[in-house]
Amino acid sequence: MKTLSRITLTVVLLSTIIGLNAQSFKYGVQAGSNFSVQSQIGDYYNNSDIRTGLHAGVFGNYSFNESITLQTEVSYDQKGSKTGTIKNNFDYVTVPVLIKYSLGKSWKTPLRFNIYTGPYVGFLINAESKNESAEVNETTDLKDATNKAEVGLISGFGIKYPVSNHNILFDVRLGLGFSPYDKVNYVPKNKYIGLSLGYEF
Questions:
Q1: For residues 88 and 65, is the Cβ–Cβ distance under 8 A?
Q2: What is the predicted pLDDT for the residue at 45?
Q3: Where are the beta strands (DSSP E) in the chain?
């Protein structure tokens, strides 16, 4: 009888813990565009032409309270740069760990606002340079000259619009690579501004 009571109590406690965690944990999908350049840190105004690329992935977040949330993501990010007819394509699988701070709800609307920041690691999946001029139109593989991983920082601003028990998300973020992508030239880094829409279940 005591054994049965203990099992029942354990099941009840585990169910309660799982239920609380489920209420605090959410996941979703997001996609958008990256506007990226490759230059030294701090050089934002004299960059080369911008490469427009894709950002798409999944995320999960855990809310510690109404203000603080920890979010992790796995996303496909197209980065690089463009100079004249030369387009440098550097594509990564990016894994950031972000701390999000809620700024609260809008006074007259259901919109909720947040800011966030945190480190990321990017794993290279493609690196190439394309000459898109009509006369040449050739592609050069840059994988052997590119570091396989990149470390950096992401900071941004987000808007959340509740729909039933779910949320529609809009994010604006800045990604700044701290480690060089080039194995020889350590000066230029990957940098981008990302715009994305998401859905949180």
A1: no
A2: 63
A3: 25-39, 51-63, 68-83, 86-105, 112-131, 138-141, 149-163, 166-177, 189-200
Torsion angle in degrees (nearest 10) through CA of 37, 43, 48, 50: 30
Q: Which two tokens stand for residue 111?
A: 């919109």
Whether 14 maps to a domain, the answer reads no
End-to-end, the C-alpha distance of the chain in Å comes to 42
Q: Radius of gyration over alpha carbons of the chain, in Å?
A: 21
- The number of CA neighbours under 13 Å toward the Cβ of 177 is 29
Token pair in block for residue 1: 């009888």
pLDDT at residue 7 is higher than 50: no
Please count the structural domains in the chain. 1
Q: How far is CA 98 from the centre of its chain?
A: 9
**What pTM does this model have?**
0.85
Does some domain include residue 6?
Answer: no
Neighbours of 68 (CB within 10 A): 12
Q: Which residues contact 16 (CB under 8 A, 6 or more apart)?
A: none
